[in-house]
Amino acid sequence: MSERLQTAIAAAKKAGEYIESMLHRRDELTIENKDINDFVSEVDRNAEKMIIETLMASHPDDGILGEETGTQNLDSENIWIIDPLDGTTNFLHGFPQFAVSIALKHKDELTIGVVFNPASNELYHAEKGQGAFLNNKPIRVSERTTLETALIGTGFPFRDFTYEDNYIGMFRAMINKTAGLRRPGSAAMDLATVACGRFDGFWEMTLCQWDIAAGIVLVREAGGVCENFVGEDCLESGNIIAGPRGVVDEIRNTVEPFLDGTLKD
Ligand code: IPD
Ligand code: CA
Ligand code: CA
Q1: Tell me, what's the pLDDT at 30?
Q2: Concatenated DSSP letters of 188-238
Q3: φ and ψ of 113, to 5 deg
Q4: Which residues are within 5 Å of ligand 3 (an ion), measured at CB?
Q5: 3-class SS at 52?
Q6: Which residues of the chain have pLDDT under 70?
Q7: Whose CA is closest to 104, among 187, 189, 4?
Q8: CATH class, 3-139 region
């Protein structure tokens, strides 16, 4: 395990333990609205601060792209992409599906992904070329190749409704083709759930880099693929389909009729 992966795991555990300790003290929190249905509390901010302090203590020259604090030193070869609490709405309601998500981009390539759900004590990690692991045990994406018997994760619009109609069309088509759809509410966890084969696939639109960067490494190292709606890179696009090759192709074919405009980027 590389030194940076060890540091990322230490940072995720530290922040995750803090988040878990605040789960039962939620009534003491000050909750702000960043935007419609976009909540943030001191837990998100403190967790991100802890993560950055831990990473910087060992790798002071690395850059940061963090959801709550923005960017620093983006000229570095090594950029950490951080979502300190993915699934904030779940956390604020005590619904135990949320995670710390930390990824490393080295020279424009995602190389490390760590996702930690402190409520279930599940820690996922992956490093390029080394496989993916859940609590240190190797994981693989599902062996399903078609949608017919597949359980598929998704996320629907709840802040920006620009693509609401597109999504509803996709949703209708997908419920008719799959064994079931689920919307747990944390994209980082959704991708981890694909990486360990509990979901056969996942799709969502207009996500941010910090929602998906770590999960992308997990899925790829677990033998799956992550692409946008036209089979290209999904990190910057934020439109993502993930899973084993065959399932990803079937999801793309199913949602394709409902794409327009920037959904094709
Ligand atoms: C959100 C979660 C959710 C997804 C949203 C994200 P946050 O992240 O990943 O599943 O549907 O688009 O923004 O705001 O809880 O960190
Ligand atoms: Ca997020
Ligand atoms: Ca977040």
Answers
A1: 76
A2: HHHHHHHHTTSSSEEEESS--HHHHHHHHHHHHHTT-EEE-TTSS--TTT-
A3: -140, 130
A4: 67, 83, 85-86
A5: helix
A6: 34-40
A7: 4
A8: alpha beta
For ligand 2, the distance from its centroid to the CA atom of residue 195, given in whole angstroms, is: 18
Please report the atom of ligand 1 found closest to the CA of residue 211. Answer: 9
pLDDT, one tens digit per residue, over 132-152 is 999 999 999 999 999 999 999
Looking at residue 225, its pLDDT comes to 98
Q: Around Cβ 130, how many Cβ atoms within 10 Å?
A: 15
What are the boundaries of each domain within the chain? 3-139, 151-259
For residue 60 the two structure tokens come to 């002071």
- Dist. CA 186 → ligand 3 center (Å): 9
From CA 157, how far away is CA 36, in angstroms rounded? 12
CATH assignment, 151-259:
3.40.190.80
Nearest-angstrom CA–CA distance, 218 and 120: 18
Determine the distance separating the centroid of ligand 3 and the alpha carbon of 179, expressed in angstroms.
30
CA atoms within 13 A on the CB side of 84: 29
Which amino acid does the sequence have at 256? E
Which pLDDT score, from 0 to 100, does residue 38 have? 66
Task: Mark residue 36 as left, alpha or beta (left: phi above 0; alpha: psi -120 to 50; beta: remaining).
Answer: beta
Closest ligand 1 atom number to CA of residue 156: 11
Query: Which tokens hold the place of 218?
Result: 């997990």
| pLDDT at res. 32 | 74
DSSP state, 244?
A: S
Dig out the tokens for 247 from the structure: 């399932």
pTM over 0.90: yes
